[in-house]
Amino acid sequence: MIKVNNFDEQQQLGVVGRDPRWAIAYKFPAREATTKVHNISVNVGRTGVVTPNAELEPVEIGGVTVRNASLHNADYIAERDIRVGDYVTVKRAGDVIPYVVGPITGRRTGTEQPYQFPTHCPACGTPLERVPGEAAWRCPNFGICPAQLVRRVEHFVSRSAMDIIGIGEKQAELFVNTGLVKDVADLYYLRAEDFAGMEGFGRRRIENLLNAITESKQRPLDRLIVGLGIRYVGSVAAQVLADHFGSLDDLMNATPADLEAIEGIGPVAAAGIVDFFQRADERRVVAKLRAAGVNLTSAAPRRARHTTGLFGQTFVLTGTLPNLTREQATELIEANGGKVTGSVTKKTSYVVVGEQAGNKLAKAQSLGIPTLDEAGLQQLVRSSEPGEDAPTAPAPPEQPAQDQSDSPKSNEPAESDNPANANDHRTTPGQLSFLDE
Ligand SMILES: [Zn+2]
To answer: I need a labelling partner for 53 at 20 to 30 A (CA). Which of 34, 175, 294, 405 fits?
Structure first.
């Protein structure tokens, strides 16, 4: 997205039809290459979604060597009949993960193997379930499946969550595989003697690690909420929730109606939150965190005006996007504080348009609502991402959340005129989960 930052200049430039004259989506040229599929493997994500991945003969696309490409989901592979051993077209657009477009059937030799999507989780053996209304298959062994647990630990200790230095993917795997960590709260029960005999864990390293873990008990509530890994709840939504409820207990007991009434929390995120805290396992984790002395409250709710992320912006999705399912796009938007609604109105900030867009596109055009394609949406999310130290101006306590829906500025992602954030390409948890799944 290339934009004019100055609000006055934006107003002078105005909007033509559906496009503001002061903003254009800069599209990276999509590039394609042909290569061979050596194998198809699957990854189990943090929420159990099993995603297939093509292991490729390394190929250079636009200056980058590509070894792996997304196959999206089981239906995608079946519909296109992508086989192990096939020569395939691989596409890479911008910094979106490369994906397999389809096989080049003319190059088949007869040795290609049709792919059978696994029926059971490769990590724990549990029969996979279809996510209702989605193409994705999921391991339903939440919280216990070791593959999910490793991802959850990684997420919990990540910089945007509890920020525990000294634990990465390798350590997360080690702790889970040795049975030291059976849920994220177990990190707070690690003792020096647990590491006895583990390679690479000297006295000094153990001491530093345990100190980092202890120190993380004081992280602000919103960081803990991020760390729990609730679907659709990224940094922006977590901050909204921490400020609104002031304690994890109040958040845990919130009803869908309580949550949906909060500006910045959409219905999908609300359902995800209620779902999460209904699970006995998750409530047990919270009890363990509490017993370990982890901070579960927000001492001084900031009641900040949430101007970061996609806060206060409303999106409508129409048509089929090239990479993201409708659910993933919703997840990306809501994890960053935006809302997704079903119909285009004057208050809609953006309409995200895919192939075979319907009436909603026409409606957006007639109302002069700006439209985005998938790449434009991803750019917008990145450019609106709050920096870790983004200043949140304190507002009077009772000031209602900002509603800019009718002002031309509503289409300007907050913070994008802050050069400190403009180049900030850190991945939010929301994005991570979408990449993961
Ligand atoms: Zn599993």
So the answer is: 175
> From the CA of 341, how far away is ligand 1's center (Å)?
33
In the prediction, which pLDDT does 308 show?
A: 64
Burial 118-154 (b: 16+ CB within 10 A, else e): beebebbebebeebeebebbbbebbbebbbbbbbbbb
Q: Decide the pairing of beta strands 350-353 and 314-318.
A: parallel
Average pLDDT over residues 417-422: 33
Q: How far is the CA of 117 from the centre of ligand 1 (A)?
A: 15
> What separation in Å is there between the alpha carbon of 149 and the centre of ligand 1?
9
Distance 136 CA to ligand 1 centre (A): 14
Interval between CA 139 and ligand 1 midpoint (Å): 5
| pLDDT number for residue 347 | 87
List the domain range (segments joined by +) for residue 402. Answer: 2-26+305-436
| Number of separate domains in the chain | 3
In angstroms, the CA 277 to CA 270 distance is: 11
Token duo for residue 414: 């907050």
**Above 80 in pLDDT, residue 15?**
no
Looking at 148, 183, 218, the residue that finishes a domain is 218
Q: Residue 322: what pLDDT?
A: 84
What gap in Å lies between CA 106 and CA 229, rounded to an integer? 45
Residue 385 CA to ligand 1 centre (angstroms):
32
- The model's confidence at residue 425, banded by pLDDT at 50, 70 and 90, is very low
- Co-location of 316 and 402 in the same domain: yes
User: Residue 76 C-alpha to ligand 1 middle, in angstroms?
Assistant: 22
Of 117, 64, 68, 62, which is closest to residue 88 (Cα–Cα)? Answer: 68
Closest CA to 116 of 165, 52, 62: 52
Residue 222 has pLDDT above 60, yes or no: yes
Residue ranges near ligand 1 (ion) with Cβ within 5 Å: 121, 123-124, 139, 141, 145
Closest-CA residue to 22 (of 411, 415, 423): 411
Q: 260 CA to middle of ligand 1, Å? A: 31
